[in-house]
Amino acid sequence: MPPHLTQVHHVVPWQKGGLTDIDNAVLLCNASHSSIDTSGWDIDMRDGRPWVRGPLLFDPTQTWRPAGQNRAAIPAEKPNWNK
């Protein structure tokens, strides 16, 4: 999902003392962001990197896994403005 089609999710909600900075934020698609509190998915920030744990139905082991196994974690090619 391109970043411009995502929403910022505060891992620790502001109402519960979470900071409103990038160290407490992840990008989620609109559907995931609207259902994150009821979907069974958990997100945790560890050393500035999000870790995710799927719901029991998806992951019976309830294993925390580092996020970023996707194209967003790969450094993008620098834009060539002279094209």
Automatic annotation (TrEMBL):
Instruction: Enumerate the residue ranges of region (Disordered).
Output: 60-83
Domain HNH per the UniProt entry, residue ranges: 6-34
Q: Which keywords belong to this entry?
A: Endonuclease, Hydrolase, Nuclease
Q: Which GO terms describe its molecular function?
A: endonuclease activity; nucleic acid binding; zinc ion binding
Protein name, entry field: HNH endonuclease
What is the originating organism of this protein? Cryobacterium flavum
